[in-house]
Design brief:
With 305 residues, the chain is of the alpha+beta class. Among the domains are: 119 residues, Chitinase A, domain 3 (Roll), CATH 3.10.50.40; 68 residues, Serine Threonine Protein Phosphatase 5, Tetratricopeptide repeat, CATH 1.25.40. It contains 8 helices and 6 strands.
Length: 305
């Protein structure tokens, strides 16, 4: 039997957590602002040094030192872990083509043991909506800044953290094609969560050649939940339909891509990128229909005698 819990982060990196090491002191999963002690057993990264000494147990506050990529990488490992879990991450985003500014994280490997929980912060559920909104906006802004500078790995870490403040506890998806929908009793948090999902989809499309269309579609699906009921702006809706259509095109789902791109074109009729992509899909459908017709004709034509 597999002794690891397996799931994928938003960029498709596999994360393993050793479930055999869990002790009786099995607290709730670690989250932002919890104080815990960790031991870094391994840290391999060509461009980013470990923020704490390797092999020495250290106390950290999850979410402190924000804006530092090394700390963001460390937090991405231990968020969601429990005391006694060994977090093993092998992350190969390879964003050299899309990275602007400081060097990209070409590969990141780490093995980190969570040794104890020192103190628990106020849970997301206990934060009032205004506080959650403020914290979510803070991390979304950091994610946007990283995205603009081409640091896609750091951007997705901040988007994930922002999303956690918008969602109800326990509903943060840990699989790429989750059926869990973003929902909150506060319409401001609902709206912000959809905007974050929209940005995630755009980031994932930009992560060439490592774009995973399924991630894009899952985020666009979530970004459209209650979007019309909450009267999201037409230009925002157009981006979501457009990005979902682009992902479906990448998967060869031309009919679905045409439906979504046509919807985007109706919402943003002057957007040349949308019109061009819709024309590309429609041309592809015509070629497919022509090939099908040719094949049918050959199939039912009388053979040579």
């Amino acid at each position: 039997a597999d002794s690891h819990l397996r799931w994928f982060n938003q960029l498709g990196s596999e994360v393993k957590r050793d479930s055999d090491a869990v002790t009786a002191n099995n607290f709730e999963c670690l989250q932002d602002r919890d104080t815990c002690r960790v031991l870094i057993k391994e840290w391999q990264c060509a461009t980013v040094e470990s923020p704490i000494e390797i092999g020495l147990e250290s106390e950290i506050v999850i979410g402190s030192n924000l804006g530092d990529l090394a700390w963001d990488l460390l937090y991405s490992c231990v968020l969601g872990a429990r005391v006694g879990h060994t977090c093993e991450v092998d992350w190969q985003p390879d964003y050299a083509d899309s990275h602007i500014g400081s060097p990209p994280v070409e590969r990141f490997r780490a093995e980190i043991l969570v040794t104890c929980l020192v103190s628990m912060a106020t849970s997301y559920a206990e934060l009032d909506p205004d506080s959650r909104l403020q914290l979510a906006e803070l991390h979304k802004t950091r994610g946007n800044n990283y995205f603009r500078s081409g640091q896609l790995g750091a951007a997705i870490l901040n988007y994930n953290r922002a999303l956690a403040y918008c969602l109800l506890p326990g509903s943060l998806a840990t699989t790429p094609a989750s059926s869990v929908s973003d929902w909150s009793a506060d319409s401001r948090l609902r709206s912000l969560s959809r905007l974050i999902r929209q940005n995630m989809a755009g980031l994932q499309l930009a992560a060439k050649p490592n774009c995973n269309p399924e991630f894009v579609i899952a985020n666009c699906d979530a970004a459209l939940v209650k979007a019309i009921d909450d009267a999201d702006p037409a230009d925002m809706l157009a981006k979501r339909f457009y990005r979902r259509g682009c992902a479906q095109l990448a998967l060869g789902q031309l009919d679905l891509a045409q439906t979504n791109l046509a919807r985007a074109a109706s919402l943003a009729p002057t957007d040349r990128a949308v019109s061009a992509r819709l024309a590309e899909v429609e041309a592809g459908l015509k070629r497919s229909e022509a090939r099908l017709a040719s094949g049918m004709k050959a199939m039912f034509s009388p053979g040579k005698r």
